[in-house]
Design a protein that fits this description.
Family: Belongs to the bacterial solute-binding protein 5 family.
InterPro entries: Peptide/Ni-bd, SBP_5, SBP_5_dom
CATH class of the largest domain: Alpha Beta
Distance between the termini: 43 Å
Keywords: Signal, Transport
CATH superfamily of the largest domain: Dipeptide-binding Protein, Domain 3
Protein name: ABC transporter substrate-binding protein
Number of domains: 3
Strand order of the largest sheet: 9-10-11-2-12-20-13
Largest sheet: 7 strands, mixed
Number of helices: 17
GO molecular function, one term: peptide transmembrane transporter activity
Helix content: 25-40%
CATH architecture of the largest domain: Roll
Structural class: alpha+beta
Radius of gyration: 23 Å
Number of strands: 22
CATH topology of the largest domain: Dipeptide-binding Protein, domain 3
Shape: globular
């Protein structure tokens, strides 16, 4: 997203908050976004919404988490200083911000009268403590900007000074991991605090089973007047996506986090359910553990890329709801080069030729790791298995409970896996860093892939101002990754969710989070 001319000010104009800024993964504002039946009248307050999800919430420490099961519960409790809307545009949230002409000094002014869910006022000291803790922890989504100073400079003011310009700074701050919480954890230990956390978000934890459901109640001190409309929100753990759909149809759930692409049309056509289909910041991929000697071999990876018919996979498994991927970055992310990158096309003869140049010309046996309970990924796995058999690579599919699946690839205990990359903020730096930085938290998304030119360009992309020069940097990165294939982007899935026809104001953000403070339930 191109920068406006400096100095830049993100103001908290009341009209903008109520009409133009429909913001972020961590919150929302303005009138409820329309969905089917939203013409039912003015929003009404009350009721509890049951939201079905395929994974339980097991940790609420915002600086230590990254997976969607936790992130999209965390962002209901904690909110950042700035946030993004449905188009990925960044605006003020808890604070307005002024940026100096040289791009080195950012001054944040907190919203007047802002309070935590316990009723205590939010102060600059809370902001300094929260962001300092994130810097010290690091975590999977670290603040990587070159922060030289972070201090309270007024009754409602915080000033952050950078050592050098850092283009994705506000994008980085807009992520859920930069939410604000009380200084010194409100006098509790970290462990105690994150068992019953206090933030500025629309909801507060009521009851929580880390292996099951999480119940929220409304934050009575929420800064958006009259919101949230719901009295309660329950994240209901359901084992797989088929059960989710069945329980939605039966009215046992009010909304579900995942609709299988194969069932999207059915859900859309049903009389009492409403399909939500929006563009996302996600890329479905096949990942290689390059610590395995077979997949350290560039020719093997390229052979597999040629052997997979990405168009066929997308057609067979997404039923027209996804776009075929040529590049890593989804088209909805700034500087995606999906229309420009030359990917390795489906070509069995080219695949055999690449394999012949490798250390494994006669093929080999390997294991493909997938999470159970996901019919689409199970189907992709079967296609991969059949496709690679054509070039002499024998694939065993290992399907595991999602929690065990994550443990395995976090420990680099896999050969191949099917997973998705997901951006948490609108700037391309976050996606690229997570998937291509060998020194980052994920070591290139647990592939251990290293390319010196990509690393060099990645750092250049952080300091280059928005514009054509920065766009060229990300084009080159995406082309190198398409040539070296540490992972094979397959398609860009849509965010597919669904509600019953009682649910209104259900708005999905590009990172797949839902702004539940805008949701309301019509009378039965």
């Amino acid at each position: 997203m191109p920068k406006s001319s400096r100095p830049r000010r993100l103001a908290l104009a009341a009209a903008a908050l109520s009409a133009a800024l429909v913001l972020s993964a961590c919150a929302g504002s303005g009138d409820p976004a329309p969905n089917a039946g939203s013409d039912a009248g003015e929003p009404v307050s009350g009721g509890t919404l049951a939201f079905g999800r395929v994974a339980a919430v097991n940790d609420l420490d915002l600086n230590q988490q990254i997976t969607a099961n936790n992130a999209f519960a965390i962002d209901k409790i904690f909110e950042p200083l700035v946030a993004f809307d449905e188009q990925g545009e960044i605006g003020p949230w808890l604070a307005e911000v002024d940026e100096s002409e040289d791009g080195l000094v950012y001054t944040f002014t907190l919203r007047d009268g802002l309070r935590f869910s316990n009723g205590e006022p939010v102060t600059p000291d809370d902001v300094v403590f929260s962001l300092t803790r994130h810097i010290e922890v690091g975590g999977p989504l670290p603040l990587t900007a070159p922060i030289a100073g972070l201090e309270a400079t007024g009754e409602r003011e915080v000033t952050i000074t950078l050592d050098a310009p850092y283009t994705p700074f506000l994008s980085e701050l807009s992520g859920f991991s930069n939410g604000i919480f009380p200084a010194e954890f409100g006098g509790l230990s970290e462990e105690e605090f994150f068992q019953n956390p206090v933030g500025t978000g629309p909801f507060v934890v009521d009851e929580w089973d880390p292996n099951g459901d999480l119940s929220f109640v409304k934050n009575e001190h929420y800064w958006q007047e009259g919101k949230p409309y719901l009295d309660g929100l329950v994240y209901t753990f359901v084992a797989d996506d088929t059960q989710l759909r069945q329980q939605l149809a039966a009215g046992q759930l009010d909304a579900i986090d995942t609709v299988p692409a194969a069932n999207a049309a059915e859900v859309d056509a049903a009389a009492n359910t409403v399909l939500s289909q929006t563009e996302g910041w996600s890329t479905e991929q096949v990942f290689f553990n390059t610590q395995r000697e077979q997949f350290a071999d560039r020719h093997v990876r390229r052979a597999i890329a040629h052997a997979l018919d990405r168009d066929g996979i997308a057609t067979a498994t997404t039923f027209g709801t996804a776009e075929v991927a040529n590049s890593l970055l989804p088209p909805s992310i700034t500087y995606s080069a999906n229309d420009e990158v030359e990917a390795l096309d489906f070509d069995i003869e080219a695949a055999k030729a690449e394999l012949a140049q490798s250390e494994y010309p006669d093929g080999f046996s390997t294991t493909l790791l997938v999470a159970s309970g996901n019919a689409q990924r199970a189907q992709i796995a079967q296609i991969v298995q059949e496709s690679l058999a054509q070039i002499g690579i024998e694939v065993e599919i290992e399907s595991l409970d999602i929690a065990v699946f994550r443990e395995r690839f976090f420990a680099y205990d896999y050969d191949l896996m099917i997973n998705s990359g997901q951006s948490d903020a609108p700037d391309p730096n976050g996606f690229i860093t997570f998937q291509a930085d060998p020194e980052g938290f994920s070591k290139s998304y647990w592939t251990h892939f290293t390319d010196d030119r990509v690393t060099e360009l990645m750092h250049e992309g952080r300091t280059t101002p928005d514009g054509e020069e920065r766009a060229a940097i990300y084009r080159e990165i995406q082309q190198i990754l398409a040539d070296e294939v540490p992972y094979i982007p397959l398609f860009f899935p849509a965010n597919l969710k669904a509600t019953t026809d009682r649910v209104h104001g259900f708005t999905v953000l590009p990172n797949s989070s839902v702004r539940f403070q805008d949701v309301w339930l019509a009378a039965e």
